[in-house]
Amino acid sequence: MRIICPVKRVPDTAAKKAVEPDLTLDRDGVEAVLNANDEWSIEEALRIKERTPGTEVVVLCVGPEQAQQTIRKALSYGLDGAIQVSDPGISGSDASGIASIVAGALADEEFDLVIMGNQSSDARTMLLPAMLAEYLDLPALTYCTKLDIDGDTVRAEREMPGGHQVVEAKLPAVVSVVEAINEPRYPSFKGIMAAKSKPVVVKDLQDVGLDAEMVGLEHAWTQVLEVTPRPPRQAGDKVEDDGSGTVGAKALADFLVARKFL
Ligand SMILES: Cc1cc2nc3c(=O)[nH]c(=O)nc-3n(C[C@H](O)[C@H](O)[C@H](O)COP(=O)(O)OP(=O)(O)OC[C@H]3O[C@@H](n4cnc5c(N)ncnc54)[C@H](O)[C@@H]3O)c2cc1C
């Protein structure tokens, strides 16, 4: 079995974000990390590998030269190899652009399953899994909280209001997973050392059958028109209770009623 794990390089959540003059995120001025949701997809791929002898897990990242660091981090969990798509023409691509690049990178790759996080921590569009499945003309099982592989079938559970749904599809397929699916392991020292020398196949746009006219900021279907900084956090109202609890309770009730929560 061959599993592909697409991962994203994102600004550290705690880092102060800045915007470039072209209204894209300044990705070089801040510390970059492996997208947190992709640790769950990597963990799930490794658990399938441990249950299914002969399984190979390959990480795939669309990102600039610096994304090699993110790829090595993903490899340090014990993955087998990596594919990076890097090309100046990719900068500023929207979700559709990135999905077409990932699909192009997989066009001549053998694989049975693509396991992704359900969302990135910077853009949070949650569009990639479904868009990738569309470009690859494969079934998509998204927001999975449980995954089972049975021969050529993947069966998944996902949470629904008031319960959960069981869905299944024939392989090859694309799945996205959510936090509830597992508890990611920490990379071992052996894994970190081994990751330094694991093979990374680097492809450019031409290698994935695309050209700069099809992706990038200029050709994005979505354009950021304006960026307004979030207003500074206002100090909350302080309520002094007289010890009876009623003053605080009444103030809270009034607050909730005024905002139509009650
Ligand atoms: C603040 C902000 C807002 C944006 N808004 C939009 C928007 O409204 N519409 C739009 O089309 N684009 C938008 N973009 C661009 C979008 O972030 C990128 O195109 C991105 O690569 C794909 O979308 P996502 O991060 O939301 O992916 P999501 O769908 O949220 O990510 C899901 C999974 O896809 C995989 N993945 C995501 N990116 C990559 C990658 N580069 N390489 C490999 N795997 C990947 C990971 O497994 C990830 O867990 C925005 C970017 C920013 C920074």
Quick one: CATH class of the largest domain? Alpha Beta
The CATH superfamily of the largest domain is HUPs
What is the CA-CA span between the terminal residues? Answer: 53 Å
SSE series? EEEHEHEHEHEEEEHEH
Ligand names: flavin-adenine dinucleotide
Helix content: 10-25%
The strand line-up of the biggest sheet is 9-8-7-10-6-1-4-5-11
What's the gyration radius in Å?
A: 22 Å
Known CATH architecture of the largest domain = 3-Layer(aba) Sandwich
Per DSSP E runs of 2 or more residues, the count of β-strands stands at 11
The helix tally amounts to: 6
Oligomer: single chain
Counted up, domains total 2
Strand % is: 15-25%
Principal-axis shape equals: globular
Low-confidence stretches: none
Report the average pLDDT across residues. 94
The fold-level CATH name of the largest domain is Rossmann fold
Largest sheet: 9 strands, mixed
The chain-level structural class is: alpha/beta
